[in-house]
Amino acid sequence: MSRTRIHNLSISLDGFAAGEGQSAETPMGHAGQRLHRWMIATDFGTRMMGGDGGSTGVDDAVAHRHELGIGSEIMGANKFGPPGWQDDPDWTGWWGDNPPFHTPVFVLTHRPRAPIEMAGGTVFHFLDVPPAEALVVARDAAGGLDVRIGGGATTAGQFIAAGLVDHLHLVQVPIVLGRGVRLWDGLEGMESGYDVEVVSTPSGVTHLTFTRRAE
Ligand SMILES: NC(=O)c1ccc[n+]([C@@H]2O[C@H](COP(=O)([O-])OP(=O)(O)OC[C@H]3O[C@@H](n4cnc5c(N)ncnc54)[C@H](OP(=O)(O)O)[C@@H]3O)[C@@H](O)[C@H]2O)c1
């Protein structure tokens, strides 16, 4: 059975998954790289950034699950580009010619455009539909594998609120951002449908997994 999964979604102690002031120069707003330093330090994160030689400890083992068994991704418009990217017909995402997805990727936006085929198997499709409809399309494209909800928080929150997420991996980073895009608004009591496991690692982050309880 194809599942819907979220991985490596990094939040501050006060629940923000991005800072305030997203722009082309500051994709994560005033948070900068602080939410993802733990991941950038790992072998997985280093490879995602086109390098090699990161750490191979517990953070790496957990981060790596992001790419296992995934057949497609759904992401929000603000992950795909900075505010206003829809006005730039040449914008193809942050990730260069060969993005690290290597699957179909469905970008949710109120201003959809024609699909963009990239090197390495990534094809960006643009959808203006509710989460449940997007999931049907992404699942169909995933060839029996799982669908990853790639974020940001607005998109992840919509899918969690709609009861569409089977597995959620959050990484709580010990910083207080104070402002930005929050994950938890509207999700009161969401944990009740999940088995929750929590483990902190020597880097200082805390990994939380929410796995949907069998009915
Ligand atoms: N902390 C992490 O681990 C993590 C992970 C991924 C991304 N990020 C960061 O998070 C930020 C982006 O997150 P975000 O929460 O601001 O935004 P987001 O979830 O990426 O995108 C939200 C936008 O997507 C469009 N959208 C969402 N659902 C839609 C639907 N059902 N139908 C049509 N359009 C829909 C809307 O844009 P329009 O109305 O403009 O079309 C909406 O404003 C970026 O800074 C990114 O780098 C962080």
From TrEMBL:
| SUPFAM superfamilies tied to this protein | Dihydrofolate reductase-like
Domain Bacterial bifunctional deaminase-reductase C-terminal, chain residue ranges per copy: 6-187
InterPro entries attached here? Answer: DHFR-like_dom_sf, RibDG_C, Riboflavin_Biosynth_HTPR
Q: What is this protein called?
A: Dihydrofolate reductase family protein
